[in-house]
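Minutes, project huddle
Topic: does the predicted pose make sense with coenzyme A bound?
PN asked that the exact inputs be recorded in the minutes so nobody has to dig through chat later. Recorded below.
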Amino acid sequence: MLPREITTERLLLRVPVPEDAQRIFASYAQDMEVTRYLTWRPSKKLADAEHHIHDRILAWRRGNICAWSMIETKRDLLIGMIELRVKDGVADAGYVVARSEWGKGYATEALMAVIDAGLALPEVERVAAICDVENLASARVMEKAGMVRDGVLQRHMVHPNIAEEPRDLYSYAISK
Ligand SMILES: CC(C)(COP(=O)(O)OP(=O)(O)OC[C@H]1O[C@@H](n2cnc3c(N)ncnc32)[C@H](O)[C@@H]1OP(=O)(O)O)[C@@H](O)C(=O)NCCC(=O)NCCS
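Predicted holo structure (tokens), as shared on screen:
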């Protein structure tokens, strides 16, 4: 069982609550720069973020995806989200940070914490993550968090904000 709350030096990672949707919509879900390398298009309405949060709250109950809202504790401000999807001994990580907060080390701090939490589970052998080969900031985050690049997954996934064609991805992992 992954912890519902994780505390780091500057962050509280906690289970999402419905009220998070408003802040997510206002701070990053509509942002073309934030969504560029993601699988979803920028949101046009608050209901999209509400649906996403509702889904992540239900996912905790189902136990298939564990998503945490990333709260910067000093300002008590939601600045992003991070999640782990645990399946077949692998915990796949994904994360997003609002553009105003980029470059302050928050994604790395959060990723390191969820890697520790993931690897602490007896059934998890490795924590893995993927990113578009052009998403250099995300690749850097994984490297700073101690993950190692396994290789390139060719034409693996569509990132619809860039093109309809499947994109090459970097695959990273860290194991026990
Ligand atoms: C990727 C993302 C989560 C990084 O968040 P962050 O909090 O800014 O990350 P950090 O500050 O911990 O680290 C970012 C690192 O990338 C580096 N970086 C940023 N842009 C870069 C670029 N274009 N080329 C190379 N390195 C870059 C930063 O310099 C920093 O490295 P450093 O500490 O060695 O200087 C954030 O940019 C984001 O939310 N992007 C949109 C969503 C996304 O792509 N999520 C990942 C999907 S795989």
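Observations noted during the meeting:
- The chain has a mean pLDDT of 97.
- The longest helix spans residues 46-62.
No decisions taken; revisit at the next huddle.
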